[in-house]
Amino acid sequence: MVKDDDDSEKTLELFLKLGLDERTVRNTIANNKVTANLTAVIHEAEVTEGCDRLIGNLLYTVATKYPANALVHRPTLLNYVVTSKIKTPAQLEAAFSFFTTVGSDNFKLNEFEEACGVGIEVPVEEIESTVNEIFEENKAMILERRYRTNVGELLGGVRKRHPWADSKIAKQLVDTKMFELLGERTAADDEKPTKKKEKPAKVEDKVTANDAPPQPSEEELNPFSIFPSPADNIKVHTEVFFSNGSVLRCCNTREMLERHLKVTEGKVFTRFPPEPNGYLHIGHAKAMFIDFGLAKERGGCCYLRYDDTNPEAEKQEYIDHIKEIVEWMGWKPFKITYTSDYFQELYELAVELIRRGHAYVDHQTPDEIKEYREKKMNSPWRDRPIEESLKLFDDMKRGLIKEGEATLRMKQDMQSDNYNMYDLIAYRIKFTPHPHAGDKWCIYPSYDYSHCIVDSLENITHSLCTLEFETRRASYYWLLHELDLYQPYVWEYSRLNVTNTVMSKRKLNFLVTNKYIDGWDDPRLMTLAGLRRRGVTAASINAFVRGIGITRSDGCIIHVDRLEYHIREELNKTAPRTMVVLHPLKVVITNLESGSVMNLDAKRWPDAQTDDATAFYKVPFSNVVYIEHSDFRMKDSKDYYGLALGKSALLRYAFPIKCTDVILADDNETVLEIRAEYDPFKKAKPKGVLHWVAEASPGVNPLKVEVRLFEKLFISENPSELEDWRKGLNPESKVVIPAAYAVSSLRDAVVGDQFQFERLGYFTVDKDSTPEKLVFNRTVTLKDSYGKGGK
């Protein structure tokens, strides 16, 4: 939130009274968090009228470095600072270390004072004597390095022996001693030392040292290393600043944490909480990787929890899909739960919230609520008696109030700077049967009310969500605090956005409903069902999201080429090679007897060993073969390696052929058939290598299959930026080839089988296949623009 000019001037004046320089103050005001912290520190220290500059500098350090897990003890430290019992940066750092260890627990003042050197005065003579000793110990080194000596190391020696000595006095004494020993600085003292010439790196097997990959960071090796252990969840999670100037510092008590750890046995508990109102997309794959991945890495547990609080949008179809797709992605839930499993507990806690004066029944319409929130105005029913709200909430539950005539709202802070503290709705009336809970309830909790409570009831240790929920932290912790419930550790990460698609459920639902695509599992979509149908593996999706990392850089869109790189990496290892001709052009080999068929060996894998029979498949070669139309030209050129009149090309795994004649249609342009001769002794060594399919028996066409070529669903990399996002749709995102020719060995392929069609790309058998006709979806082309530029 940007402060207005009057507020900024008042803050500027307040901070300058500490003796801080104006530049530091202006930089501080530009940082809302530090501004809030320093303002709170000034009021807690009761120095709004100003203080000594040395004290002011220490107060600024407290505002920027004080440990968040011990905010309850900050006033104690500030009292020691303003009374000059703690007066050096070293003492302050010791205090920070002490309170980091203590957290919010009680402590003994004498232990604190001892840890911080309170009351200890180190005489100048004693400091000087120590400086002399250190110089004597390091004299040879100092004389050699002269003024290039690391003075910080010398001062570190002084601090080690006298941690509470005045650092300024120590620095003055060291500088004086340096001058006594070395005299005036010379020009040579200011010259940079020359580096020894290094020998060039040895080159081995034509690989330079530069080709060695950089050492991965700890976070790259283990992206979950950034998360704290459950036992550390006693620190302040967040500070909620209220409009009346008070600050709520939310954290677990030691007793609360110990009860939690007893239930969980100290294990990590996470949850993957999708709403069952649509199909999961690739963004959910990142959420699964983080939620399930953290639990797996720490030997913990992850719930699959359906966040089913809106019965109007939820279907059993979506519930079944989510369970099935989570398993397909390779994750095994510790337990499957529903928010609706906790409807009774949620209701009872709502009643308790009303009793405590933190919720009320409201009769404003949605438009009125919106208007009042925008104007920061309280609802006319905000201060109604508690007993009245309790009765009305009971009437809501019993179905005595019409839908839309009442809601239960949390009594938060309508004057807050955080929009998500404007008395959020906790319950609304919906006379709609629930797909899981049936018709037992006609009031349903909101996400803002239920999510944090169910996290607490399930003893979640790490509540992980995307960055758009960061501003809801205040509401999350406020509610748990007011109900005296255990508070999980919350951490937000950036959403996964990919180019040339949309992932909003509203937009996806629009595309499905209006038949722009062929359902939620259309292979052009970035839904996980669509990616699976396209032939993308769960392993490649998980590799993709792991490669992105658990980032907090919001607003970034990942190029789809990066995903395709990981898809190729996986399929290159798992998809056997085969041959399919998309646009067949008939080639009659005139020097091979009609009806003669040779069964040749073709490789399933590039590195196939000759003694491994399973690494090969048989392909028939006869006098009628089919090649791609695009592999023949009437006119040859130097940079063209296909077939042309009078030119040779090699049929992969077979023989070189040379075009001897061309049969044209009546228009004298369209090529109907070509004639060629083959070289049975393979004397010719043409550069071009073509894939092909032959007739297995005279007059019988090869296996006919349907091939679907998919391109990006949107031409625009970011359709959401368009005035009308639908105008970015790619009209050629799906091309169907109804009569491609395939080698006969593909006849037994089943749905889900994956292949590399040589020279064409990776393909999978689609569910639309029938016994009469196979249908193949192109997963990805062979071309890789991302891998060339780096991973």
TrEMBL record:
Region: Disordered, residue numbers: 185-220
Residue ranges of domain Glutaminyl-tRNA synthetase class Ib non-specific RNA-binding in the record: 10-166, 171-245
Keyword Nucleotide-binding part of the UniProt annotation: yes
SUPFAM superfamilies given in the database record: Nucleotidylyl transferase, Ribosomal protein L25-like
Name assigned to this protein: glutamine--tRNA ligase
Keyword Signal: no
Glutamyl/glutaminyl-tRNA synthetase class Ib catalytic domain ranges (all copies): 267-572
Listed InterPro entries: aa-tRNA-synth_I_CS, Gln-tRNA-synth, Gln-tRNA-synth_Ib_RNA-bd_2, Gln-tRNA-synth_Ib_RNA-bd_N, Gln-tRNA-synth_Ib_RNA-bd_N_1, Gln-tRNA-synth_Ib_RNA-bd_N_2, Gln/Glu-tRNA_Ligase, Glu/Gln-tRNA-synth
Name of the top EC class for this enzyme: ligase
Source organism of this protein record: Rubroshorea leprosula
